[in-house]
């Protein structure tokens, strides 16, 4: 990818979903291989990735494989072997977190920095570029000025910047959350997060008073940067990433199509920019992010800190308001829709909030429109079980079966424009094709000239026949006939000529596809911005330790998963502030008469059942630390031997 290219990067749980992502306008797809992919339930075989790469390369799209867990020493060699298999399968780049991979014998392929590498500063971004990484996904928490500051230190001929523009938000700085491992032994850095952030908590202040009850105070709304794309381009981002390697086919189709449309509008406005792959996509539906699972939307910190970034009431999908309950009967409810044209369907999913603001789901078994225009809805489950469902209750729809069925069918068409020229020569007819990217194909038909019965419409018949591109990836821009006289050509022979020309064009496109050149590390190795790494650096194997030592780090502590941190530590670091969201921030109180000086950033406590966590607030960088300790049961269950890393620099005579 070049600095003027814009890349729409879509997720894929499977190769089939990845292929539909390309069909719906993605320039690149990221997907897990058979292991080490940071999503334990989204693994794919190498052969499936090869199948996906073959489809992607037809459009000069790219496939990025996630190899972004931290690795144990015994996993290094299997990981190295997998990387070579991925390269041979046609994968274009690896997304990595573990710096030990840079110490391996690798094939000549690009390495991209995973979100787990937690890139928030210009210093770290420049270091990773100079260490040989070619694409960096920046922390989701960054503002436009912070992204611009990183852009200013990056050489865009060597390294490009990537950013998440849609999907679920991890409340922690990625790679900086250890709650799951501390409580369950399941490591987020190894792709097995238990998602403690989506649980409800009781929040208590330093005096034991309840500040919030059963609120999901660590649960964020979903990311949506639809309104910020131009600003994000202007500050230097070139790869725009959709979250969702656990998402289903309909989600990937819809969200990819949504952003494809937005980027196509921008590319029309900005001729100095271009898409990173070839082809134009049309859709049989109108993309709408509200139709998929979401926790409502936020643009997070891109335009600065905002108060409404949390999904505190529920981590579920609240859907869109659709109407209100007019009547509750024994076996059905009557619903009046906000808009008369609204259609309800058997199988639709509805929901409402009970009096405690808990979201209650209600699936429609049968929907009938009444003569008055309202709807009789017969739910799948007995109405007696629906708490606080009464006349006047506002109802949302979070699943529209008509929409679901639309996306179960073929819903897009991606085509590359092509010019055709049919000319005659001594052997007969020559068909030449040139596509929008400049690739050429041709085919010769050895055929003696034969006059058509009706000369007046002969040229039109030839043009119409050649324009039939059917199930190919091409669409006709124009047909030029360079014929000295009208020709009659049997349909079967003209069809064969067209097919042969398309085959040669596809072969030329494949031959002209260039694999991404790997990045080159600066020599001698540049120093890492810090000389002491704590458990927050996620160093979990000897090769990663060698990497940081090579780059001048003096003290390297093991990853949290190495179990050398048995006391209370920061189990999560986040830009989200519970005090701010609950209007308890000292900065918010500044200047408020009667309040100023009385609100302090004292710790808060989160309680979920037997689990207790402490919130501490670092107001200078405006960050929150969730503090706790590893459970004895997790330490006891640890099967591997402890890492021989050191928390202070060993003496000259000590063990190294």
Low-pLDDT sequence parts: 652-656
**Mass-distribution shape:** globular
Our Rg estimate from Cα atoms comes to 29 Å
Number of helices: 15
As for the number of domains, it is 4
Largest sheet, spatial ordering of strands: 1-2-3-4-5-6-7-11
Instruction: Determine the mean pLDDT.
Output: 94
The percentage of residues in β strands lies in 25-35%
Please bin the fraction of helical residues. 10-25%
Structural classification: alpha/beta
| Count of distinct strands | 30
CATH architect. name of the largest domain: Alpha-Beta Barrel
Description:
With 656 residues, the chain is an alpha/beta fold. It has four domains: 235 residues, Copper homeostasis (CutC) domain (TIM Barrel), CATH 3.20.20.380; 154 residues, no CATH class; 93 residues, Thrombin, subunit H (Beta Barrel), CATH 2.40.10; 95 residues, Enolase-like, domain 1. The strands form five sheets. The chain has an eight-stranded parallel β-barrel with strand order 1-2-3-4-5-6-7-11, surrounded by five helices. It has a six-stranded antiparallel β-sheet with strand order 9-8-28-29-30-27. It has a six-stranded antiparallel barrel with strand order 15-16-19-18-17-20. Strand 25, helix 12 and strand 26 form a beta-alpha-beta unit. Helix 1 runs parallel beside helix 2, helix 1 packs parallel to helix 8 and helix 4 packs parallel to helix 5. The two termini are 42 Å apart. The C terminus is likely disordered.
């Amino acid at each position: 990818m070049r600095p003027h290219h814009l890349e729409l990067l879509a997720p894929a749980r499977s190769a089939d979903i990845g292929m539909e992502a390309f069909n719906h306008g993605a320039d690149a797809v990221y997907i897990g291989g058979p292991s080490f992919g940071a999503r334990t339930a989204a693994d794919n075989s190498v052969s499936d990735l090869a199948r996906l790469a073959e489809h992607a390369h037809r459009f000069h799209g790219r496939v990025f494989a996630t190899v972004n867990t931290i690795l144990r020493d015994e996993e290094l060699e299997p990981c190295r072997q997998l990387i070579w298999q991925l390269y041979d399968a046609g994968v274009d780049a690896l997304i990595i977190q573990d710096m030990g991979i840079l110490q391996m014998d690798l094939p000549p392929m690009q390495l991209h920095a995973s979100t787990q590498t937690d890139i928030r500063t210009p210093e770290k971004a420049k270091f990773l570029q100079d260490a040989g990484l070619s694409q960096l996904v920046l922390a989701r928490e960054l503002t436009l000025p912070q992204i611009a500051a990183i852009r200013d230190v990056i050489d865009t001929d060597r390294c490009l910047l990537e950013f998440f523009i849609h999907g679920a938000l991890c409340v922690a700085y990625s790679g900086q959350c250890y709650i799951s491992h501390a409580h369950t032994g399941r490591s987020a850095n190894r792709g097995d997060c238990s998602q403690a952030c989506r649980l409800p908590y009781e929040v208590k202040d330093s005096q034991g008073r309840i500040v919030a009850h059963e609120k999901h105070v660590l649960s964020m709304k979903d990311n949506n940067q639809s309104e910020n794309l131009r600003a994000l381009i202007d500050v230097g981002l070139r790869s725009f990433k959709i979250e969702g390697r656990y998402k289903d086919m309909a989600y990937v189709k819809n969200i990819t199509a949504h952003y494809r449309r937005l980027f196509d509008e921008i590319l029309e406005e900005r001729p100095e920019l271009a898409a990173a792959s070839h082809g134009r996509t049309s859709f049989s539906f109108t993309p709408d992010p509200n139709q998929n699972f979401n926790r409502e939307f936020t643009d997070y910190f891109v335009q600065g800190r905002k108060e409404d970034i949390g999904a505190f009431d529920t981590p579920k999908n609240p859907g869109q308001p659709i109407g209100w309950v007019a009547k509750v009967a024994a076996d059905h409810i009557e619903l009046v829709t906000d808009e008369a044209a609204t259609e309800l369907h058997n199988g639709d999913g509805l929901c409402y909030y009970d009096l405690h603001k808990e979201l209650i789901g209600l699936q429609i078994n049968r929907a009938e429109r009444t003569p008055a225009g309202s709807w009789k809805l017969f739910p799948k489950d007995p109405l007696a079980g629906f708490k606080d469902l009464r006349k006047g209750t506002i109802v949302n729809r979070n699943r529209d079966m008509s929409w679901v069925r639309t996306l179960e069918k073929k819903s897009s068409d991606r085509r590359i424009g092509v010019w055709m020229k049919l000319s005659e020569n001594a052997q007969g007819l020559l068909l030449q094709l040139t596509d929008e990217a400049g690739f050429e194909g041709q085919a010769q038909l050895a055929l003696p000239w034969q006059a058509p019965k009706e000369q007046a419409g002969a040229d039109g018949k030839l043009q119409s026949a050649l324009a039939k591109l059917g199930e190919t990836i091409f669409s006709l821009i124009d047909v030029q006939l360079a014929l000295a006289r009208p020709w009659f050509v049997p349909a079967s022979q003209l069809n064969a000529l067209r097919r042969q020309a398309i085959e040669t064009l596809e072969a030329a496109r494949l031959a002209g596809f260039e694999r991404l050149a790997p990045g080159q590390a600066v020599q001698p190795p540049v120093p890492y911005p810090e000389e002491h790494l704590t458990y927050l650096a996620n160093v979990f194997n000897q090769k990663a330790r060698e990497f940081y030592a090579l780059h001048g780090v003096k003290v390297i502590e093991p990853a949290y998963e190495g179990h050398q941190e048995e006391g209370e530590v920061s189990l999560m670091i986040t830009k989200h502030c519970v005090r701010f969201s609950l209007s308890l921030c000292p900065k918010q109180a500044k200047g408020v008469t009667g309040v100023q000086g009385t609100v302090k950033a004292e710790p808060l406590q989160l309680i979920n059942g037997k689990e207790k966590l402490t919130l501490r607030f670092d107001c200078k960088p405006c960050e929150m630390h969730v503090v706790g300790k590893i459970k004895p049961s997790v330490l006891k269950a640890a099967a591997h031997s402890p890492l021989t890393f050191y928390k202070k620099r060993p003496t000259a005579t000590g063990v190294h």
